[in-house]
Design brief:
Layout lengths: L26 E2 L10 H14 L9 H17 L6 E4 L2 H11 L7 E5 L8 H10 L2 E5 L7 H8 L4 E7 L11 H11 L2 E5 L11 H4 L3 E5 L11 E5 L49 H15 L1 H21 L15 E4 L8 H7 L2 E2 L1 E3 L3 E4 L7 H16 L5
Parallel strand pairs: 1-10, 3-4, 3-5, 5-6, 6-7
Antiparallel strand pairs: 2-8, 7-8, 9-12, 11-12
């Protein structure tokens, strides 16, 4: 299992708990469920809400500047141009936009993974139904090598591969550079749901070359609930938005000419923006999260969280609990696999001790720490887990 040594890119970041509002007795190891807001995001949101108390101080340009800043920040995070980014309310909105715009012929296939998150399943099921296509769902491979399984399944019949970078259930990592290359060889579009990876795991659009990448902000982007981003590759930027709103159209920043209705759009991916995307409270909150991630650096975040999850994996192994090998999982994610069933309600039992993880049935548990987690949190997790499994703090 690789450990976070100096041969990996990135630096170790010291604990950043002071930037959050997490009480000392809370061990929050559940970022994949929902992240805590940064204090800076709370302040930005509070300032935005406060502005709505005084609408006479809100100028038309305020609906544009925050949104444009967010586009630029997210673009920097993934190595794209701001023109390639649309502002969405959710991952599903972005993925539905992709489904609305990608061609699918009768009999052609859409590739999905077993137990993929539903936001990246339902839009494709609808599309397949509408066009006479077929959903091909790849079964979880026995050796957990999703990349190989996907590469083997990618043939000329596949029109769309709609995939995550990291499987949301256990952190299994997919080599999207190799998958992207194969997609281009067979003429399939690559659509990525980056909700469980972007912000914590480096994503480079120039290397992966996705057609679309959709991300919700409330997990690894440390943003609010109700906001997201959609990267749209330049070749799809003249597509059809899910909805038609006035912001999309050329000249929408000039309020005096709004009723000079026009057919042309704002440049790039802006035509895919959700209505009211310039929210004066959500946008500053999301932007504060992105600024912090860029300041830390995603490679450094990944390396630092991997050091933590590697330690947790080793301690779990001492208790006979399995995990995916280090090179097969993303560093920010851990799925603990119990040999048999764990005690019923294990996650609830831990939560009563203010230790938060996600249960995955009775035989698995998702542990997803971030930079706020301390060694004391980790120790408390293991003490509580040992007590829950063996009835005392020592096995
Ligand atoms: C992989 C993945 N995608 C997307 C989402 C959220 O989707 P949406 O923004 O459509 O609610 C989640 C939430 O758990 C997720 O795990």
């Amino acid at each position: 299992m690789p450990t976070a040594d100096q041969s990996e890119p990135g630096l170790l970041i010291p604990c950043q708990r002071h930037l959050f509002d997490i009480p000392d007795d809370v061990a929050y190891l559940n970022c994949a469920y929902i992240s805590p807001l940064l204090l800076a995001s709370r302040d930005a949101g509070h300032a935005g809400v406060t502005r709505k108390l005084r609408p006479w101080e809100i100028s038309p340009s305020d609906f544009f500047t925050g949104a444009e800043t967010g586009r630029g920040l997210f673009a920097r995070l993934i190595g794209a141009s701001p023109d390639d980014i649309a502002l969405t309310p959710s991952a599903s909105y972005g993925l539905s936009t992709a489904a609305r715009n990608l061609p699918l012929g009768r009999g052609q296939a859409i590739l999905l993974l077993q137990e993929q998150f539903p936001s990246n399943v339902y839009p494709w099921r609808e599309l397949a139904k509408e066009r006479g296509g077929e959903i091909v769902t790849l079964a979880r491979p026995d050796d957990d090598d999703w990349t190989l399984t996907i590469l083997e399944a990618l043939n000329e019949r596949v029109a769309i591969a709609a995939l995550p970078h990291v499987h949301w259930t256990d952190g299994a990592l997919i080599d999207l550079e190799r998958v992207g290359r194969r997609c281009r060889q067979v003429g399939a579009a690559l659509v990525v749901d980056g909700t469980q990876s972007v912000g914590a795991l480096p994503f480079d659009v120039t290397a992966i070359q996705p057609d679309f990448l959709a991300v919700a902000t409330y997990k690894w982007l440390l943003g609010p609930y109700g906001a997201g981003y959609l990267y749209v590759a330049p070749k799809w930027q003249d597509g059809i938005p899910l909805e038609h709103n006035w912001f999309h159209r050329k000249g929408s920043d000039n309020f005096a000419t709004l009723v000079d209705y026009r057919d042309d759009y704002q440049p790039g991916a802006r035509r895919f923006d959700v209505g009211e995307r310039g929210s004066i409270h959500l946008v500053p909150m999301a932007n504060a999260g992105l600024r912090q991630l860029l300041e830390w650096g995603v490679e450094n975040i990944q390396k630092t969280i991997r050091a933590r999850t590697d330690r947790i994996a080793l301690r779990a192994a001492d208790m006979g609990i399995g995990t995916l090998p280090g090179e097969q999982r993303a560093g920010h994610y851990l799925g603990l696999r119990f040999r048999g069933d764990s005690p019923e309600g294990l996650a609830g039992q831990l939560a009563r001790e203010r230790i938060y993880v996600s249960a995955r049935g009775r035989s698995a548990m998702r542990v997803t720490p971030h930079l706020w987690v301390t060694d004391a949190d980790e120790d408390r997790f293991f003490e509580a887990l040992t007590t829950a499994l063996y009835g005392s703090a020592t096995p």
